[in-house]
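Reading a protein record of the kind used here takes little practice once its layout is understood. The reader may check this reading against the record printed directly beneath this paragraph.
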Amino acid sequence: IVLTGGDDRLWKTWGFPDGNILLTGEGHTDWLSGCCFRPSGTQLVTSSGDTTVRIWDLSRRGCILTLRGHSRAVCSCSWHSCGDFVASASMDGTSKIWDVNSERCRYTLRGHEASVNSIEFLPFSSTALTSSADKTLSLWDVRTVSRL
């Protein structure tokens, strides 16, 4: 299965290698910038120009949680390997670590001088990597909200 999101405000799962659309999700009000499966494969996360991050349940075929807190478009999202945390990166110059179970922002990462374009968790660790339009990369310990 391949997961995509685009300017049409939709995410889609595609059967591979046939290329048939298996599921489609709608709910964002602007372009999708990122999408990622939960490690268990039962849910996915999307990020959007509408400033939100959404969690989708594939069995329910709908959005089960909308995370709000960024003031500008969200450029990227990723899921931690444990499945309990989602990270987002935004044009507002911040990244956020969201606790999916409590449905709230756990930490806001500040330090870039421009848009944060991407964020990824390093597998099986508490470290996140961000990239920014300020032409820097940063490694973060998300437990202490500090740069490494």
